[in-house]
Amino acid sequence: MVKSPMSAFTAVLATPYPAAGTPIKFDQIVYNAENHYDPESGIFTCHVPGVYYFSYSIHVNGAHALVALYKNGQPIMFTYDEYNKGFLDQMSGSAVLLLDEQDTVYVQIPDEEANGVFAAENVHCSFSGFLIASTIKKEVAASRTEDDVWA
Ligand SMILES: [Ca+2]
Fold first, then answer.
1. Regarding beta strands 74-81 and 125-134, do their DSSP bridges make them parallel or antiparallel, or are they unpaired?
2. Where does this protein reside within or beyond the cell (predicted)?
3. Ligand 1 centroid to 14 CA: how many Å?
4. C-alpha 85 to ligand 1 mean position (Å)
5. What spacing in Å lies between the alpha carbon of 80 and ligand 1's midpoint?
6. Which CATH architecture has domain 8-139?
7. What is residue 99's predicted lDDT score, i.e. its pLDDT?
């Protein structure tokens, strides 16, 4: 009997102005039991091939902000906020992605031009993802140990 595959995480960021040009390190884990998200790099690595949903919620303060959801180093979707002085803005994005094993997904500020991503102790940015449905073949799944795929 094969257990249903699991892959899900939510992580938050509580410090402002993460570096551009590198994945944002959402470093406080809310859920990451399968450990497919790495809080030290900010990178989710697919261990269960399938269809996934990813979302992010970002605060903006002090400057315009541009972020993108990246798959395997390529931006899939951009989200932009035009910042007006004196306000705290929010922006968010989400996408369904088809992933193969070892595909990577992360959120990144593409460049320093628009890096107003803001967070604080009670003003969290967050990054979440979860498996909607595995595309792994049943016979392959049956041949694998729990450590391979489901852990
Ligand atoms: Ca705005």
1. unpaired
2. Secreted, Extracellular space, Extracellular matrix
3. 20
4. 9
5. 9
6. Sandwich (2.60)
7. 98
